[in-house]
Amino acid sequence: MANLLEFKNVSKIYKRGKTETVALDNLSLTLKDDEPTILTVAGESGSGKTTLAMLLLGFIEPSLGQIYYQGKDISLLSGSERMSFRKEVQAVFQDPFAVFNPFYTVEHLLEVPIKRFKLAKSRAETRDKMAEALTAVGLQPDEIFGRFPHQLSGGQRQRINIARALVLRPKILVADEPVSMVDASLRANILETLRTLQRNYGVSIVYITHDLTTAFHIASSIMVLYRGSVMEAGGVEQVIKYPQHPYTQLLVDSIPWPDLNRRWGQTDLEPSEDSVIGQGCKFYARCPKAMEVCRSRPPLFQLEPYQTASCFLYQEKPKLESEQLSKTLPV
Amino acid sequence: MKPVLKVVDLEVSYYTDAGRAKALDRVNLELNAGEKIGLVGESGSGKSTMALAMMRMIKPPGRIEHGQVIVDGNDLTSLSDEQMLKARLSQIAYIPQGAMNSLNPVTRIGAQMIDAIKAHSPNMPKDKMRARSLKALESVELKPEVFRMYAHELSGGMKQRVCIAIGILLEPKVIIADEPTSALDVVTQRQVMETINKVQAEIGAAVILIGHDMGLMAQSMDKVAVMYAGRLVEVSTVKEMFTAPKHPYSQALIRSLPKLDVRGVFQGIPGLAPSLLRLPSGCAFHPRCQEAMDKCKTLRPENQVLASGSRVTCHLYGEGA
Question: What residue segments make up the domains of chain B, in order of their start?
Fold first, then answer.
């Protein structure tokens, strides 16, 4: 079974003068070729989730480690390999308003990739391809063709973005906060579209978000990042219903569930001083359960077949090498 | 109890090249001191227009056609522009969407706070202004050092709290916050909401929270008002709204919310929000409504108060239903 995508001990370090910021810290991750999945990468701002997306899309290069796509290091791809990488790894970004050029009709956005990758031989074929992609995301092609971006709602635009990615028949779709700027009532439609894509078109989706509610409903596995390190990972149901890491517990406790019987938790929120503990657990300064041992970096401990946490509270559990992380992520 | 805020028959139109768009259609709302109400609706439903109209900040081509906004007995719509300047911030404060990006990057936070006080009481002694600003920072749980800092030295959540501090400087009677947490992650969002609730209780102001996150409303508001196509279709207590919503649109909205017990079930609201230029006749929601009757297509429903205390605008309720 081939690996579609593999992160091997990847770190990204941003340097500014003498200060170094570790945006992503020694992450290993594998997506399998024949098992399309939806993986959520969750975390607050500054957790490294967008860095992960940028690395995955090949926009930036890792400082340490390698990223392999279909067994090849993506920084060493040849011209034609790079083209197919670009075609097969697609993205949908947060802001459905910013990606459209207001002077062109919607067809333009869909036509460019078809022309660029020479996917159609004639105008009619181009149109068929566009119509097919639009139908796949639940839009009526006749209602969309000839329209300008400002004539469409945010939800429609975001679905057109997904259609644009779909035209290229991608293997991986990186969705960076695709619903955070869309109305709650339209979110359901977009998420449904993403899930259909994964089921019917065999696209693996990396869903990047800080919204654990939508993650819970759409993803099969989840990885919680904090300051570039994995805090907890595993099956989405397991992690969100029974969070074990104090950070995940804080996150889950802070979700405003639209349910009067689940009030916001009372965990103390006041983050203590952002003291940087170079070698220790990254959550040390904010952790209500911090211990002396947390001054050194905790490894991953395997809690359940599909749950692992990087926290010394579970030090009696078996250790998990960071390279083995993907084993705890169900498909 | 005398309501601190009364919005009467407020109507706002935007005059566009394509015609007149009625963004706010005879909206009525009452709010008591210390009450917190959430205003929800799809984008384009008129939530932000309502906030701007209450602040009298509608710019051309928009216009307040008629109606009154009465804060603490004063009708804001009858004030002169000069008087309105004074009323903003001291009577009614507005924390706009993305407020955290509205801080001036080249002046210190403290200077911006003192600016706001100076505009209202130019003769107040300097040290008193300073003391007042520091007190406001303290009530949003920021350290006094923030007074000397610049916006870029603060995190998103801290900037948002600075904006709240500016909003409460003059202890207004009504605070309107437009999506104050939409750009923040869940933990910071909770901190900001807790801050708003805390300062609100301190100064006893009424709060209008605009947003589309029903979860946030459930966790921190007393009442929820649902807007659709420029009209308030339902105003209910949070408990009523989440256990027994009345208007079919509110019902669809509540049904579309993610739940923790059933995973992977999505229920969107079919159809699209109508264009304000071509509103459907009768009840604006009838083309998307599952319970639409014949009269919904022709007759506009009137606002009515139900026995439960909910206010709803729908033909399903009241006489003849």
Answer: 3-313
Is B190 within 8 Å of A254 when comparing Cβ atoms? Answer: yes
- Contact list, A264 vs chain B (CB under 8 Å): 190, 219-220
| pLDDT at B33 exceeding the cut of 70 | yes
**In chain A, whose CA is at the least distance from the CA of B274?**
A153
Residue B29 Cα, gap to closest chain A Cα (Å): 24
Contact with chain B for residue A225, Cβ under 8 A = no
Domain B3-313 sits in CATH 3.40.50.300: yes
Contact, A178 vs A199, CB < 8 A? Answer: no
- Distance (Å) from the C-alpha of residue A111 to the closest C-alpha of chain B? 26
Give residue A10's pLDDT.
93
d(C-alpha A195, C-alpha A20), whole Å: 38
Antiparallel, parallel or unpaired: β A64-69 and A72-73 = antiparallel
**Over the Cα atoms of chain B, what is R_g?**
21
Query: Is residue A54 a part of any domain in this protein?
Result: yes
User: Per the structure, how many domains does chain A have?
Assistant: 1
Is residue B319's pLDDT more than 70? no
CA atoms of A31 and A38, how far apart (whole Å): 10
Check if the interface score ipTM surpasses 0.85: no
**A195: nearest CA partner in chain B:** B264
Instruction: Give the residue-averaged pLDDT of B114-141.
Output: 91
**Among A221-225, B108-112, B241-245, B277-281, the least confident range:** B277-281
Report yes or no: A150 at the B interface, CB cutoff 8 Å: no
Is A294 inside any structural domain?
no
Q: Write down the pLDDT at residue B134.
A: 94
State the count of interchain CB pairs (< 8 A) between A and B: 115
Judged by a CB distance cut-off of 8 A, whether residue A193 touches chain B is no
Do residues A184 and B256 lie in contact, with contact meaning Cβ atoms separated by under 8 Å?
yes
CB-based contact A217 B265, cutoff 8 Å: yes
pLDDT of amino acid A303:
92
Of B44, B186, B267, the CB nearest to A254: B186
Q: Residue A135 is part of a domain; what is its CATH number?
A: 3.40.50.300
Q: Are A69 and A89 in contact (CB under 8 A)?
A: yes
Residues of the domain holding A61: 3-219
Range B16-40 average pLDDT: 89
State pTM to two decimals.
0.81
Nearest CA in chain B to A43: B185
Cβ contact, residue pair B238, A192, below 8 Å: no
Q: What is the pLDDT of residues B131-187, one digit of tens each?
A: 999 999 988 888 899 999 998 888 878 888 899 899 888 889 999 998 888 767 788
Closest to A14 measured CA to CA, from A55, A65, A73, A63 = A63
Q: Which of B226, B240, B230 is nearest to B300 (CA)?
A: B230
Residue A176 to residue A153: CA distance in whole angstroms: 19
